[in-house]
From TrEMBL:
Keyword Transmembrane helix: yes
Keyword set, alphabetical order: Membrane, Repeat, Transmembrane, Transmembrane helix, WD repeat
Any Pfam family the entry gives: WD40
Record has Transmembrane helix as a keyword: yes
Entries under SUPFAM superfamilies matching the protein: WD40 repeat-like (SSF50978)
Top-level taxonomic group: Eukaryota
Transmembrane domains' residue ranges: 24-47
Ranges occupied by WD repeats: 155-195, 196-236, 277-317, 336-358, 359-399, 400-434
Name of the molecule in the record: Uncharacterized protein
Entry-linked SMART domains: WD40 (SM00320)
Length: 434
């Protein structure tokens, strides 16, 4: 007992020891508390950074919204909270840059599994997209979901590729085809008016003047002149190889380009060849006439040649390396546009031979070109598309994607519209004055 009582510290010492122990405990508790706060802070930061705040292309500043029931405010946008999971087949992911999406009728929502206390944890906003109505002249392309111009009407009668188009002075449309036929259509009501039969192979080229009637060139090695009214052949010029293109010269003579690399100048009245223009080393695929009367030809030999047809001499040449020249058209300011097998449309200063501009947009050979009444350029390609280019901005202003095969021929109509012929055997008329 005494021993034990000896070991018991006196009251003062005991008090002292006790108070220092309490201090230590309090200190430890304080440290633990501080550590816990720090830990919570760190966890909070980690947790916050995990919230994937979706990209927000539709605004720059958040403002508080008063969202209605079943919606929650997120990034100044009312999102719908879905109870079920989203069916990825029927519900689309929004592309906010899509001009066809009218955001005012777009329902944004978040998967319930991604929803957490006011935040959408998914990095992709889901959206019940309601697409804009298309104009009457358009249809919705199932593949791209875009409003696409639809043809005013389709002329369907040819049994093979449509190869060339021409408008007669009375407004009628003439089409020639790989089915050897030439048809004359009323484009107001789309009725077939005449059928010109006689060619024995693909009719690749059409040209004409009222005084001569209609002129057609064919791979059957003939050029035929038709009396459209009587629906009969009036004259026939015979060549030694396949005719691939035609152009009427300013002096009334006719130029033909052929498979044998030759350009032949014809007297239409007596049906004789006046002279041959030699210089190409490939098929002559396209011919146009400049304001000054010079002839310009494009060939599979990658060259564009400017000819003096009176003298039969070459004035200048433009080389477009590795490219077949498939189509040519002359602009109002005298520049010449070429479409070629490398998908590129090139605008040339024909006097200097300098490349003035390249138009890139097609995904296959540019087969045909037409200058529209309003100065725009139409191009048709083996990518099945017709692009309309504004030649001031050099931008595509319309895509006409209704054909199902190569666009082989484009024609600017007197009323400002355009006609297109395709390897899908149809001819379509497009209203461009929306
Ligand atoms: C939100 O809506 C409620 C009920 O309609 C209304 O009482 C409240 O004032 C609104 N708040 C704002 C900020 O508009
Ligand atoms: C999407 O919108 C359509 C039309 O408004 C509606 O019928 C459909 O239920 C909506 N879907 C979802 C998942 O909200
Ligand atoms: C596009 O969708 C419409 C309506 O659903 C359908 O009638 C048409 O055949 C579809 N076109 C194509 C090319 O799938
Ligand atoms: C084309 O058809 C329309 C409507 O049927 C008619 O008014 C017009 O005169 C026709 N044009 C020609 C050139 O025959
Ligand atoms: C055809 O006319 C041209 C003049 O353009 C002339 O040189 C040529 O001799 C004529 N040929 C025939 C067979 O009459
Ligand atoms: C032009 O070439 C063709 C084919 O070689 C030939 O038949 C024709 O006589 C030539 N014409 C002239 C005017 O030399
Ligand atoms: C292209 O041609 C236009 C019209 O002739 C001219 O104004 C422009 O300077 C030319 N641009 C180039 C790069 O040659
Ligand atoms: C139209 O063509 C241009 C150029 O090829 C392309 O950038 C654009 O996406 C096309 N638009 C449509 C609706 O196909």
């Amino acid at each position: 007992m005494a021993k034990k009582s000896n070991q018991v510290p006196d009251e003062e010492t005991y008090q002292l020891n006790r108070s220092s122990k309490v201090k230590v405990i309090l200190f430890v508790i304080l440290v633990i508390f501080i550590l816990l706060i720090a830990l919570f802070y760190v966890l909070w930061i980690l947790y916050s950074s995990k919230r994937l705040i979706p990209e927000k292309p539709w605004h720059t500043e958040f403002k508080e919204l008063n969202c209605s029931q079943n919606y929650f405010d997120h990034s100044s946008r009312c999102f719908k909270l879905l109870q079920e999971n989203i069916n990825s087949d029927t519900d689309k992911i929004c592309n906010f840059n899509d001009p066809d999406l009218d955001s005012s009728i777009c329902d944004f929502y978040c998967k319930s599994s991604d929803f957490d206390n006011g935040y959408c944890l998914s990095n992709q906003n889901h959206c019940n997209c309601t697409l804009n109505e298309c104009f009457d002249t358009q249809f919705r392309d199932n593949q791209t979901n875009k409003c696409t111009e639809k043809a005013l009407f389709t002329l369907q009668k040819h049994e093979s590729s449509v190869l060339s188009l021409l408008q007669l002075p009375n407004g009628d449309l003439v089409s020639s085809s790989a089915d050897f036929m030439i048809y004359v259509w009323n484009i107001t009501d789309g009725t077939l008016k005449k059928q010109l039969q006689g060619h024995e192979y693909e009719v690749v080229a059409l040209t004409g003047l009222s005084s001569y009637g209609l002129i057609s060139g064919s791979r059957d090695r003939t050029i035929r002149i038709w009396d459209v009214e009587q629906e009969i052949q009036a004259k026939q010029l015979v060549y030694t190889d396949e005719i691939l293109c035609l152009a009427l010269l300013k002096n009334g003579e006719l130029a033909s380009g052929s498979l044998d690399f030759m350009i032949t100048i014809w007297n239409i009245h007596n049906g004789t060849s006046i002279r041959n223009l030699t210089g190409h080393r490939g098929m002559v695929l396209t011919l146009v006439v400049l304001d000054n009367g010079d002839l310009v030809s494009g060939s599979s030999d990658t060259q564009i040649i400017i000819w003096d047809t009176e003298k039969g001499t070459i004035k200048s040449k433009i080389e477009v390396e590795y490219n077949w020249i498939l189509s040519l058209v002359v602009l109002n300011d005298g520049r010449v546009v070429s479409g070629s097998s490398d998908q590129v449309i090139r605008i040339w200063n024909i006097e200097t031979g300098e490349l003035n501009k390249t138009l890139i947009g097609h995904e296959h050979s540019v087969r045909t070109l037409a200058l529209l009444k309003n100065g725009n350029l139409a191009s048709g390609s083996q990518d099945f598309k017709i692009l309309i280019w504004n030649l001031e901005t050099y931008q595509v202003v319309k895509n006409l994607t209704d054909h199902k095969d190569t666009i082989t021929s484009l024609l600017a109509l007197q009323n400002g519209n355009i006609a297109s012929g395709s390897a899908d055997t149809s001819i379509k008329l497009w209203n461009l004055n929306l």
